Amino acid sequence: MPLMRFMDDYRKSRQAALANAVLAFLLASLVCLFLYFGKFEGNITGFFRIGSVLPLSPLLQPETTRIWPDELGYDGQQFLSISLDPFLTQPGTIAALDQPSYRYRRILYPLLGYFLGLGNPCWIPYGLVGLNILAITAFIFLLTRSLQIQDQSPENGLWGLAIPGVWMVLSLSTADLWASVLALAALLSFQSRRPWGMGWALALGLLTRETLLLVWLALVIASVRSQRREHFLPLGLALLPFLLWNAWIIYLSLPGASGTGNFTWPVGGLLAKGEALLQNGLTLGNLYEAYSFSILGLTLAWGLRNSLCPRPQINALTLTFWSYAGLGAVASFYILNYYLNYSRVFLDLYWLFLLLPCFRPSMISLDSRPGMLKNLLCLGWGLASLAFILLQS
């Protein structure tokens, strides 16, 4: 009987996670259609925020590409250029990248887009957008399963749809959502004692965004502390594809900076950001900027308080949260100057906040003052997301 009860509970929990994932897929698809027809006038290249400053990919036609005049463009443009020519066979591909050695490091997302689009330049942009719809679906499924392991209600997994960075990534077609999915998969595998699943998720995640080194380091420390010797080999092998790929990039001698300009002295970027907000005045754009930055700051501060008081809770989740908090402390103004930057880079802080052991919001219960405040914070995320989709995207 206990085994039957366990199997029944397991089946119901998976069904709840799948229901959340289906809801996420439908909502992401609706938002995507709204952007495609409403914002981008039926032009799929609108999802990549292509500017006129850099040369256009040789596999894009200027007359059929939505281009923002006098703009540098955004990261989605870089991913699209690589996805159209992931093997760098076209001479103009490298010229279309602002920092080739840095951009080419994040190969997994554009490579998946290339294969999903069957190598056809007309289909690849659709493939990249579709991949991020699938990423949102997988993200909500994994988030819900992680919350269920902590005996939280599966409804809380839907708070993931309130995170502003989710919709910013969808509208810009960058790799951050897949990085979050793979980081979440690695942490869930750690919690479920599946070391090889953890290793595979980290190996793929490091080829998506190098900041997953923070997750890797947190899991190494947590494995050592909990004496999980079976984790050491998967964790070691997870670094191998990342190291080999970076060695290949060095061999290619691609031009460009390494990305170290994204960091500065501790709190230097935060001080510069505060000064910029005060100087830019009461414009609509600056008010949204201030709101987005305040929401992120409040999430970070509350997460630190929850994980440190009344005493530090040292586990894989808190170690990962602290590492991203440390990254925020040394982030330069280049990262913090614009909500599209920091909302993507620190997207993981939001879902890590939801997973912190002492965080127990409820979508259906506001029985206590702390619970009400936490739900209000999550609703604040949703307001920033809604304002972005309708006004800022």
Structural class: mainly alpha
Query: Between the first and last Cα atoms, what is the distance in angstroms?
Result: 53 Å
Q: What is the tally of helical segments?
A: 18
Q: How many domains in all? A: 1
Give me the strand/helix succession: HEEHHHHHHHHHHHHHHHHH
Percent range of helical residues: 55-70%
Total beta strands: 2
Q: In what range is the share of β-strand residues?
A: under 5%
Poorly predicted ranges: none
Please give the radius of gyration in angstroms. Answer: 21 Å
Mean pLDDT score: 91
Largest sheet properties:
2 strands, parallel
Strand order of the largest sheet: 1-2
Structure, described:
This protein has 393 residues and is an all-alpha fold. The protein has one domain. It is built from 18 helices and two strands. It has a two-stranded parallel ribbon. The longest helix has 38 residues. The termini are far apart.
Q: Features of this protein?
A:
single chain, 393 residues, mainly alpha, two-stranded parallel ribbon, 66% helix, 1% strand, globular
Summarize the structure.
By secondary structure, the protein is mainly α. It has 18 helices and two strands.
Which SSEs are present, and which pair or pack?
Elements: H1 2-39, E1 50-51, E2 67-68, H2 75-84, H3 91-95, H4 100-103, H5 108-116, H6 124-149, H7 164-172, H8 176-191, H9 195-206, H10 212-225, H11 232-252, H12 268-279, H13 284-308, H14 316-330, H15 333-336, H16 339-345, H17 347-355, H18 369-392
